[in-house]
Amino acid sequence: xxxxxxxxxxxxxxxxxxxxxxxxxxxxxxxxxxxxxxxxxxxxxxxxxxxxxxxxxxxxxxxxxxxxxxxxxxxxxxxxxxxxxxxxxxxxxxxxxxxxxxxxxxxxxxxxxxxxxxxxxxxxxxxxxxxxxxxxxxxxxxxxxxxxxxxxxxxxxxxxxxxxxxxxxxxxxxxxxxxxxxxxxxxxxxxxxxxxxxxxxxxxxxxxxxxxxxxxxxxxxxxxxxxxxxxxxxxxxxxxxxxxxxxxxxxxxxxxxxxxxxxxxxxxxxxxxxxxxxxxxxxxxxxxxxxxxxxxxxxxxxxxxxxxxxxxxxxxxxxxxxxxxxxxxxxxxxxxxxxxxxxxxxxxxxxxxxxxxxxxxxxxxxxxxxxxxxxxxxxxxxxxxxxxxxxxxxxxxxxxxxxxxxxxxxxxxxxxxxxxxxxxxxxxxxxxxxxxxxxxxxxxxxxxxxxxxxxxxxxxxxxxxxxxxxxxxxxxxxxxxxxxxxxxxxxxxxxxxxxxxxxxxxxxxxxxxxxxxxxxxxxxxxxxxxxxxxxxxxxxxxxxxxxxxxxxxxxxxxxxxxxxxxxxxxxxxxxxxxxxxxxxxxxxxxxxxxxxxxxxxxxxxxxxxxxxxxxxxxxxxxxxxxxxxxxxxxxxxxxxxxxxxxxxxxxxxxxxxxxxxx
Length: 662
Known about the structure:
Elements: H1 14-24, E1 65-68, H2 84-97, E2 101-105, H3 111-122, H4 125-132, E3 135-141, H5 153-160, E4 165-171, H6 174-181, H7 185-201, E5 205-211, H8 213-219, H9 221-233, E6 238-243, H10 250-267, E7 272-277, H11 284-293, E8 298-301, H12 315-326, H13 339-349, E9 367-368, H14 371-379, E10 397-398, H15 406-415, H16 422-437, H17 446-456, E11 464-476, E12 520-532, E13 541-549, H18 553-565, E14 575-584, E15 595-603, E16 609-616, H19 619-637, E17 638-639, E18 642-643
Parallel strand pairs: 1-2, 1-8, 2-3, 3-4, 4-5, 5-6, 6-7, 7-8, 9-10
Antiparallel strand pairs: 11-12, 12-13, 14-15, 15-16, 17-18
Helix pairs in contact: 2-3, 2-4, 2-13, 7-9, 8-9, 9-10, 10-11, 11-12, 15-16, 16-17, 17-19, 18-19
């Protein structure tokens, strides 16, 4: 269960006050307005405002240029495989965000990338990108050894590619030249010079990624710097220093970047320095920032830090740090507020769950679980959040758990539109602590917490009450007949109460169990339920006794409850169980362990989801508790027109384009 915290309250940190004091040349005036946890976001953009001469558009107008390589370097991550449609959809989000460069792929390597570059124009993305100042780049490499630039097939693919920019990779480590390319250091520099000159002559804007630059700089400083300077003198617009192995420390990155900046400037060429960091030591973001301190004006990276091995620098986090912590423009005005949405949308397109602990954009980036923290935030919103979360499109939340204080409960009630007394809050808190001591985890089970609030309200009337249920799970006909002899069919009543996507399951529920050929698993449930009209008096009570079978005991239990409830509450037909997860809570892992069951329910039409939880020594009882909470919540929140659900603003699955992960 979550609530908005610090949604737009004025920053009250000492660093901001001191900054304002220095600007004003005197003492900062203390605001008389009391910060509110629920105030509508104001016009605050960053801890450090933009420079007056920075108009805030993509590309050359930014202090630091953002170069996204999600479509090429990011797709090298294990588990990510993008279709051409996926790549175009990711590119569309990046264009809308306003990154200066989008690296589309390697046109000489595979048909998919060739198709992408073709469809970039036909899809209309090229016009949209041009209007916003975003440039498309193609990736490649220097000419091969022993081949002239004019005859090199890779360079020909780059010159034929419709992308106006090309980024070629070049070796900057003498040992790599010798052992990997099989060329001398002199030949390597010639390959850089001739390749850049060839592409510039073809009308391309050229960037050179100096691969393994920092390892090469440590091994042979003179040669590494010569490679960068050679690219600059030959016409490259950017020389990009790559921490390819991801093992360099920030202070070395800053020092070596400053060294290259001085060398490039000494050539007199119109060339700038960039940085490309891998995250093998979890320093990719820090190293990118260090490079900017050393003079880099381009940062290459991937959305959400995707990439091979442990990934690349998270370009969205880098951009947020540059803007909010260093006062450097990196994105067009207003784009920062889109970071959380873009992060979630790209995660979905890449079939990746968004990391809840991702800085700035994660669903837990501004989550607060401890009661003392929540109490402090109510008095001073900046006390436990380093920025106003809305600056990056995120929201803070208070998590309900056994660590909560009464303030968490009162704040959660306020966020959901309830007014509860301190006594009711204490009652709910006591129940939460009791349930969590027995294995429930309520911090992400917003619907179960909502039901606790409802049941604590003396005016609440439950829509139904389960008097008793009985589950029979059996296996019969061992060897009695073969699977071909099994009858096909089921309870036709279920056709009137089940969501459409679940209709087939009950009619094929008698599955061959596998113990012997011909054995059949049978799951039957009898449930007795009081269904109420408007109150819980005997006069308004209608007792239902229903029997159902299902594809497993939990499905059978759900089917029986639907038979009992759907006539009175037809909205249940549009609700389906989306996910079901079981955890054993005993460290010994014995069969007698307490079982925790988490269920995710979804509205059929909108895929809006809510989560419930149950825990018990019996997996059936644990499932029953989560199931009843989910249906009771659905009855309260859903109608024939759809479901009105607010399980928490900071969940990744609640954001447009995010994968369902709750």
